[in-house]
Specification:
- Residues 72-142 form the Oxidoreductase molybdopterin-binding domain.
- The chain is an alpha+beta fold.
- Helix content is 30%, strand content 30%.
- The protein has helices spanning 2-27, 58-63, 87-94, 115-120, 157-162; strands at 37-43, 54-57, 66-72, 79-85, 100-105, 110-114, 124-126, 128-129, 132-133, 143-145, 167-172.
- The protein starts with a helix and ends with a strand.
Length: 173
């Protein structure tokens, strides 16, 4: 009787434990970057890959769930084709649970971005425009991009201030 009970309870329990273990391994599985670091995620990072931070190069960023957004912006001419990881995917990879994050540009401009924006819209961290890496002189290397044309309500001063270009880091309190 004990043997039957063990077989009935042990196998599902073992599967559940292994399932949880594999989820935690995959969440923390980003290796240290091999290329130039484009983005540092600091603060309350549960899944760091360099010290207490998550550092991402182009390859690591593109390994996360990405999107292409074809949109016009207040800072570019015409409609551009922008590509990069979903902002929320970067936060998930870092293991960040926060209501807002601070995005800092390499020129020391900062903006607070509510995580609710990232859940409601497919905001990306654009690293390519029209198939090419975004250069620092052209809003790069990382640009917080909201899908403006798909959601005209985003064309307001508040969201424009959250659309940081020249992004160097994201900080989660």
């Amino acid at each position: 009787m004990l043997r039957v009970w063990l077989r009935r309870t042990s196998f599902p329990l073992l599967c559940a434990v292994l399932g949880v273990a594999s989820l935690s391994v995959s969440a923390a599985s980003l290796p240290a970057p091999e290329g130039e670091v484009l983005l540092r995620v600091t603060g309350n990072v549960a899944n760091p890959n360099v010290g207490t931070e998550l550092h991402l190069d182009r390859e690591l960023m593109m390994s996360l769930p990405t999107r292409v957004i074809e949109t016009s912006t207040p800072w570019t001419e015409g409609v551009g084709r922008f590509e990069g990881p979903l902002f929320r995917a970067v936060l998930e990879a870092a293991g960040i649970e926060s209501e807002q994050v601070r995005v800092s540009a390499i020129n020391e401009y900062d903006a607070e971005v509510p995580v609710s924006d990232l859940e409601r819209y497919d905001v990306i961290l654009a690293i390519q425009q029209d198939g090419e890496p975004i250069a620092v002189r052209d809003l790069g290397p990382v640009f917080v991009l909201y899908p403006f044309d798909a959601h005209p309500e985003l064309l307001n001063e508040t969201v424009r201030h959250r659309s940081v270009w020249h992004v160097g880091s994201i900080h989660a309190p």
